[in-house]
Amino acid sequence: MKSKLLPFIAIGAVVGAAISMLDRQTREHTVETAKKAKDTVAYYAENHEELKALVESKAEQVQSIYGAVNSNVQALIQSDFQQMPTTILSMVSETMSAFSKKDDQLS
Description:
Elements: H1 5-20, H2 24-46, H3 48-78, H4 86-106
Helix pairs in contact: 3-4
């Protein structure tokens, strides 16, 4: 039996979007946002180097944040766990597990 979930989700999304477009403010905002997106895409289509620099900058920011979080987690690992409540210990354990899974996926 074929699942009907995804087609009905898509139909619901289309119907919901159509109903929301009955509101004038929503239509105007949607048109304005679409124009801005079109202009941005056109700009970066002509300025590849600027887009490349922007992406590299964002990637460096993400790496910096990851490094900071990773060092904070490592500091928690090295601290005295006996003084921490059980709830905090479980949170730290879950965070360490999540980051190690992400680290394995990146490698």
